[in-house]
Amino acid sequence: MLQSVYTEKVKAISESITKSQDIKTSIWLENVLFTPHWWLGLSLAIIPWVLWAFLSKKDSRHRLLYTGFLILIISSFLDFLGAQYGLWIYYYEVMPWLPAYIPWDCTLIPVIILGIIEYKPEVSPLLKGIIFSTVASFGGGPLFEFFRFYEMLNWEHIYSFPIYFVIYLIANWHSRRDDFSPYW
Asked: Which residue from 59, 51, 161, 150 is spatially nearest to 110, judged by alpha carbons?
């Protein structure tokens, strides 16, 4: 009996989410797709990876791509949580089906971190993490907010600082592991 009440409630919620997503997709198709914000987002999702492919050291690429994928998973998961819990909202998604901003989570954060890891490897990871966290939290976030890519609802830029710092330290640790093999 209890199980059927639960499943019916979950089913009703799922139907409501589906209807909301259909409305959002329709609005996105009419108001976002092919706008300058959309083209910029698409460019930010592709161009940094292309630049990284040309500028990164070829002998480090395999190891760093694993690290980039880890960063992508962590940042996307945290961004999904924040968007789902109403901490912030995105207005010009590249794809309307995901609750996070793909260029930020899947390109800018990973590529910037990989570039920082690769550039001057002798510099302290703590210093690099502080620099990255500062620029991402108090530079990138406000810049994306200024251009209306997103709006913070129940969040402050300072809250992002320790999160970016930990993400950088995890990425740095992961990139320096000895057990990466160049072959499958």
From this structure: 51
Tokens for 55, please give them.
Answer: 């500028």
Contact between 165 and 133 under an 8 Å Cβ cutoff? The reply is: yes
**Full DSSP string of 139-164:** IIHHHHHHTTSEEESS--HHHHHHHH
Domain count, the chain: 2
Same domain, 63 and 84: yes
Tens digits of residue pLDDT in 20-60: 999 999 999 999 999 999 999 999 999 999 999 999 988 88
Same-domain status, 166 and 136: yes
Closest by CA to 134, choosing from 105, 157, 110, is: 157
Identify whether residues 163 and 77 lie together within a single domain: yes
Consecutive H or E run containing 33 = none
Tens digit of each residue's pLDDT (9 = 90 or more) over 78-101: 999 999 999 999 999 999 988 788
Tell me the pTM.
0.89
If DSSP codes are grouped into helix, strand and coil, which group holds residue 85? Answer: coil
| Domain membership of residue 104 as a residue range | 35-175
